[in-house]
Amino acid sequence: MNEKNKNIILYSIAGIFSFTLFLMIINSIILRDYYSLFWYCYTAILLIIIGLLTKNAKLILSQVIILAIPDLFWIFDFFYLIFTGHSLLGLVKNFPNDSLFNKITNLQHLYIVPFSLLALSFLKIKKNYKVLLVGIGEIILIFLVTLFFIPASSIINCINVNCIDINLIFLPPYLLWFIFTFSFVIISYLIITSLPFIKKNNKN
């Protein structure tokens, strides 16, 4: 594929993500749920948009490794809800009763990571542990901001309240979040940087 067509696809993805982020922000304002702006997917989508516009594969990758596994859980629970009529993990249990606008914005979990991987397939990546450190540093920052500046009763980022209905370990939600998210980022990094269709080889 020539460079012009690649650019069209990258900028189209950036446009879709920009429109998605706009709708998410508008939805938060309409609901007067301003704390929802602190969901880490808002920041991640914004940084991915910047990465797409600047063709910065490392920036895109640093956000994808944060979103990938949590989004997979959401997608699994979403399709489980569709086929069985109820939520297994509790991540989408409110989806049937959500407003249409809420449903539309929540569907971003279905396409942000796949489209980002498509973009990375054009930009190409190689293993760079600085990207992993950026991802880990970001989740530490998210953890601290949410824990100390967001009301304890809030479900924002699932740190103060366990968003999954399955209690695997009897530990405080914030400690579970940190352990699992830290692990998810590392696992996602190792898997994504090994995908053959986005790896940068020696000829690139």
Q: How do the helices and strands line up, and which of them pair or pack?
A:
Blueprint: H1 3-30, H2 40-54, H3 57-84, H4 100-106, H5 108-123, H6 129-149, H7 173-192
Helix pairs in contact: 1-2, 1-4, 1-5, 2-3, 3-5, 3-6, 3-7, 6-7
Describe this structure in words.
The protein is mostly helical and 204 residues long. It has one domain (3-192). 66% of the residues lie in helices and 0% in strands. The protein is built from seven helices and no strands. It has helices spanning 3-30, 40-54, 57-84, 100-106, 108-123, 129-149, 173-192. α1 packs antiparallel against α4 (100-106), α1 (3-30) packs antiparallel against α5 (108-123) and α3 crosses α6. The chain is globular.
Q: What are the defining features of this structure?
A:
single chain; 204 residues; 0% strand; 7 helices; mainly alpha
Low-confidence stretches: none
**Ends apart, CA distance between termini:** 14 Å
Order of helices and strands: HHHHHHH
Proportion of residues in helical segments:
55-70%
Structural class: mainly alpha
- Structurally, the number of domains stands at 1
What is the rounded Rg? 17 Å
**Average pLDDT for all residues:** 92
The count of strands amounts to 0
Please tell me what the overall shape is: globular
Number of helices: 7
Strand content: under 5%
**Which sheet architecture does the biggest sheet show?**
none
What would a concise description of this structure say?
The chain has 204 residues and is mostly helical. Helix content is 66%, strand content 0%. The protein has one domain.
